[in-house]
Design brief:
alpha/beta, Beta-carbonic Anhydrase, Chain A, six-stranded mixed sheet, 9 helices, globular, zinc, Beta_CA_cladeB, lyase, zinc ion binding
């Protein structure tokens, strides 16, 4: 099988089972969506939120990008895909919870750890280098705390810190902060271990990640 043939085959299986068996549900979803949870996750092919959390279509509003990063609020020029998704979820869908999901073996976090962000290109590509520069400050913190040769331990710490960066950046959006202040919205962080299948949930007070 080549190209998208596996996808077409998968669609045919889905149409016979997942769609036909729940036709009524799909007809309801066709009229609109009303998820209460937004998930910001990594684009990594191994970390599918619907699979990890066993949720059905219509239950979560998901945006995925390299390292599950949220940029800080700004209204300058350019295209703001993640920011527009956050705005839509919070102000239009009125989600009550936003979860930032990091994960083990994150290529984006590993790439961020391997550079100094002093304008040099480390071969990741211009778009990737620009994107992961959001992790510059925590990268320096991790290096200072763990040392330059900490290896896998440093990468895991970067993955945890990246979740914190995204949560902090979410609070820079005025419409997010307004809803945090009046209790309409809550922010959460978590990290998924691919090999073990473990889910760690971030303590909002200490930043520590604990088993779910």
């Amino acid at each position: 099988m080549t190209g998208i043939t596996p996808l077409i085959d998968g669609y045919r299986r889905f149409k016979k089972t997942g769609w036909d068996d729940q036709r009524e549900r799909w007809e309801t979803l066709a009229k609109g969506q009303s998820p209460k949870i937004m998930i910001i996750a990594c684009s990594d092919s191994r970390v599918d939120p619907a699979t990890i959390f066993d949720v059905a279509p219509g239950q979560t509003f998901v945006v995925r990008n390299v390292a599950a990063l949220v940029p800080p609020y700004e209204t300058g020029g350019g295209f703001h895909g993640v920011s527009s998704a956050i705005e839509f979820a919070v102000t239009q869908l009125e989600v009550t919870d936003v979860l930032v999901l990091g994960h083990a073996s994150c290529g984006g976090c590993k790439a961020a750890l391997s550079r100094t962000f002093e304008g040099s290109d480390h071969g990741h590509g211009a778009f990737i280098d620009s994107w992961i520069s959001m992790l510059a400050d925590v990268r320096d913190e991790v290096i200072a705390e763990k040392g330059p040769d900490a290896g896998a331990e440093a990468v895991t710490e970067m993955e945890h810190r990246a979740v914190g960066v995204s949560l902090d950046n979410l609070k820079t959006f005025p419409f997010v902060q307004d809803r945090l202040d009046d209790g309409r919205l809550k922010l959460h962080g978590a990290w998924f271990g691919i090999a073990e299948g473990d889910l760690l949930v971030r303590d909002p007070e200490t930043g520590a990640f604990n088993p779910a």
